[in-house]
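Usage

Read records sequentially. Each one opens with the input sequence:
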Amino acid sequence: MLYLLLMLHSIRMESNNGGIMKNYKKYIFDLDYTLLIPDWSLEDEYFKKTIPINEQAEFFLQKQNILDKYELKFPKYDFKTLSEYFKSYGFHVSEDVIKGWMIHNSENIKDKVVDGVEELFHYLKDNHKEIVILTNWFSGTQIPRLKKTGLYRYIDKIVAGEDAMKPNIESFKLAIGDTPKEDCIMVGDSIKTDKLGALNARIDFYIVDAEHTIRDLYQKIKNMNDLEANIEKTTLKF
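and closes with the structure output:
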């Protein structure tokens, strides 16, 4: 009995934020590079057909930097504001072009599901846990990607870029909902958005990296739950 309790304590202390890995009720996941590894190679093919030729070379160089700055400046994505923001950098990207971009990516991005994700999601749902996706991009792209990879059936709620963006506290409030904060954990790959946002929201977090993988997380959760079940059985015997 003492050995089981010591093992449980050891597993709980393995959360990579230095806190305690608990039996959470709600798991909030980032999407890109946490659950899915996207291949963006076909994205620029769309812009070659939709923005002026004389702008394309510079646009391809600056596009990601502009999006990063947008996410720091604004609380959420919307087509009009994003179009105007691109225009402020000298690029003619209309609202209709942005809408088409969302559709193009939803249909053409090829995603690889990160190792361990399907097992983790299946296990969490079998154990009556809530799964929330918290992503900074438009749901019009993200939901079809989740459906194509078969992950959408596990999802209870999606908070996307048009709702609010990480690390803004509003995005985490929407993801947390009525669940007590101590029963929530953020799982993501970004220090700037996932970790910082979780700290601001005062919930636990698990940052995915080479030493802390999704499969590692799955194994820790499973081991902890198995030990808790064994302790409960042992206690009942006495």
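Summary fields computed downstream for this record:
- The radius of gyration is 20 Å.
- Residues 214-237 form the longest helix (24 residues).
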